[in-house]
Amino acid sequence: HQSQHTLHFNSMAGTIDQAKMKFSRIVNSRSYTRFNQSQNPDGESSRVEVKLAVDGEEEMDGIEQEQEHVQRDTYTRSSRSGPWNKWRFLVWVGGVLVIFCVGLLIGYSVHRKSESASCSPGDGVIKHDPEDPPNQEFPPNDPPPLDWSELVGLLNDKLSSKVIADKLSEYSQVVRKAGSSADNKLADDIHDIFTQLNMDPWVDEHYVKLQFPNSSNPNKVLFGAVEIGSPKGFLAYSETGRREGRVVYANYGELSDLQNKEYGLNLNGSVVLMKAGKISMAQKVMNAAKMGAVAALIYPDPADYKTMSWDAELYGHVHLGSGDPYTPGFPSFNHRQFPPAKSSGLPGILAQTITANMAQSIFEKMGGEGAPDRFKGDLSSYKLGSESDKVTVAVNNNLADTKIHNVFGVIKGYVDPDRYVVIGAQRDSLTSGYAKSTVGTALLLELARVFTELKKGSFRPKRSVVFASWTAGDFGNIGVTEWLEGYWSSLDRKAFTYISLDSVVTGKFSVFKCQKHLFYYMPSIIAFQKAMC
Question: Entry's PANTHER family (predicted)?
Fold first, then answer.
């Protein structure tokens, strides 16, 4: 009974082993290829035998295996394949070069097409009608282009003294601080005028930082404990705070005045008193800062400003540069976030303007040696100062984020409309700004009107003429600088020249002087002549 049981068990085990072996063959079965290579007797070609086999033909552990030849195939190849491989490599390299050249040509043609396309208002330069042809040739029945003398004659005939006088009177009535309601209203008026003249106007917006006095906490100047005054004028981008130091008179604040060893001026920790003129206020304050001063006071000496009242206030800025000093080198568009930065042109000391009467009060209280003759003006006394002359300067200006607008209009050129001449004028003013912003804006609008009328006749500008009204000019040409920084890549290729109307006519002048001699006071007159004719 036991032997039968053992036999039955062995038989069952053998059956199970056979089942496992068959199952393994089914699951693990896969094909593979065997290669045999032999050399032909002639030595010119090789014979390769390819044989497909099935796994499971050989089993391990002494199990008997069945072998079956599935497929047998032979082919021949040339043993001299080197030249053919080199040829294929050269063809491949040539194909890559052809594809690269085709792509380069396509990219170049697309780039040229984009350059020749008309600028949109978003480009900030010229607004074109998409239906206008890229180049307008002179109509066959039109008269030939004018020469310069003919153009000047037409302008003198077309410019209206009455229109200029009316605009001068209108624009000098209101103080137009950059970003204020008065400034924005004038910008809207200019936009409307450009619209009436069919000049396709557009507006360029920037968000900049401007500094204004604190109306509730005015700036002050004290000599010892005596208050000299609270001037209304100010210097934008001055440091704020309160500083006291020994007052020293330093003429115009030029480096030759500050570094002259003959007078032995020690400016370290001092408050430097300087006359306005010769160099910019920003340069004066920067020079004083380099010499270790803690504050700078600037006044208009009657010897240099004979027509100005002794109580006249001065306005300006101390940024030794142009544009928004808190976005140096890049445009202030739509609150765009940039890493915190500050222009190196900011002097870092307090700066304040005072009137001639305030300066007279300080000189009367000063001690020390008398100033040399070349330092003197029309005040009653001039002294260099002593160690006991202490002056305190308090500057409480506020820095404000301000939205500003530049306004543009264009008269399109006939020969080369995608290149342009820019005629610009500052619009804003911290005071009446007569010589600078008022005269410039009045002439800008009158020139736009005259050019539009001339275009209806025989005048055909070769290039487009862009008329630009800038703002924030009193803070360091911020409006125009931000525009340049924003569109420099386009301006570098397409702008022909820029003509500024700021302070184009100064001193005592009449409306007739503006009319008859306008172009003789323009800067870049030769470039203007070449651009227009």
Answer: N-ACETYLATED-ALPHA-LINKED ACIDIC DIPEPTIDASE, TRANSFERRIN RECEPTOR PROTEIN 1
**pTM score, whole prediction:** 0.71
b (16+ CB within 10 A) / e for 65-79:
eeeeeeeeeeeeeee
Q: Report residue 414's pLDDT band, with 50, 70 and 90 as the boundaries.
A: confident
pLDDT at 260: 76
Which H helix or E strand runs over 446?
helix 439-456
* Edge-to-edge strands, sheet with 416-426: 202-212, 398-411, 463-470, 416-426, 495-500
What b-and-e string marks burial along 36-50, b requiring 16 or more CB atoms within 10 Å of the CB? Answer: eeeeeeeeeeeeeee
Q: What is the DSSP letter of 176?
A: B
Q: Which of 461, 497, 473, 447 is nearest to 164 (CA)?
A: 447
* E-assigned strand segments in 132-225: 202-212, 220-223
Domains in the chain, please, with CATH? 148-211+400-500 (3.40.630.10), 218-395 (3.50.30.30)
DSSP secondary structure string for all residues of 319-375: -SSSS-TTSTTS---TT--------TT---SEEEE--HHHHHHHHHH--SSBPPGGG
The tokens of 387 are what? 């160690």
